[in-house]
Structure formats: C-alpha cells, structure tokens
Amino acid sequence: MPKKVRKSNWALDHINELSKLDINLGTHASLLLLELISALNYKNWVTCIILSATIIDVINYEESGPILRIVGLDKNSLFSNSETYWLRQKRNSILHYQKPVSGLMNEKNASSILEMDAKRSSMILLNILKIIGDEV
Fold first, then answer.
1. Structure pTM?
2. Sign of the Cα pseudo-torsion (28, 33, 39, 43, in order)
C-alpha cells in the first residue's frame, strides 16, 4: 500500500521561522509581527497579506532596531524591489478597492488564491527580516 504523502504546512514553517528570528525590531513592528504569526496560525490569509506589507513599511520607517545600520542603496534595494512593490500593490488593492481582486470575488478557488498570495507575502517579509538579521 502506498504511503500517504504529507503535505508540507508552509504556514507552520513560516511561524517557526518568524518565531526563531532574533531581531530587535521596534515596538510597532514587533507587535504587528506577533499578530502576523497569529494570522498565519489561523489561516487568515488576507490578514497575512496586509500585515506582511505593513510590517515591511513599519520596519523601513520606524527608525529603531537593526534597520538603523542599513543605509543608502542597500536600504533602497531592500525596500523598493519588485517583490515589495508587488506586496504593497496587493495590500493596497485589498484595502482601497479600485477594481476586482483575485481571491476576493467569490471564485471557486478563492481560498487557494489567497493562500498562495499569503505564502508569497510572508516569504517576502521573511527574506527581508533574514537580511536585516544578518546585518546585526
């Protein structure tokens, strides 16, 4: 009898990675990061997208923690690349309705669309946090 293949729980993996990071973020970003971990745990995909983008913006502008060590072009490339642009656009399309948004239009696969976007969103944030953590 063939063994069942266990589907990887990417959300749990991301929760574990986020929880293990030893980065002294500012108070605002730290609190939002705890909220993101909770949203991932409860599979609140839209919340994950919104919080991932918001945390990135807060880290960029909060002026505390390890971000103070990143300046100039390094900071610009970290916070102004195609991935962070996609994430900000996704968040803004959810919060500031201008046209239909995939995953929010009652499609049959809406949950899958939102889950994929949440996974991409939290991965973008994780990558930024890892880079910042390496700068410490």
1. 0.87
2. positive
* CA–CA gap between residue 76 and residue 37 (Å, rounded): 26
Let me know the angle formed at the C-alpha of 130 by 127 and 132, rounded to the nearest 5 degrees. Answer: 110
What does R_g of the chain's alpha carbons equal in angstroms?
16
CA–CA distance, 59 with 25 (Å, rounded to integer): 7
Categorize the per-residue pLDDT at 8 as very low, low, confident or very high, splitting at 50, 70 and 90: low
Give 114's contacts (C-beta < 8 A, 6+ positions apart).
45, 46, 49, 103, 104
Q: Which two tokens stand for residue 7?
A: 């589907």
Q: How far apart are CA 133 and CA 136, in angstroms?
A: 5
Residue 6: what pLDDT? 46
The label of the residue with tokens 């409860």 reads: 42
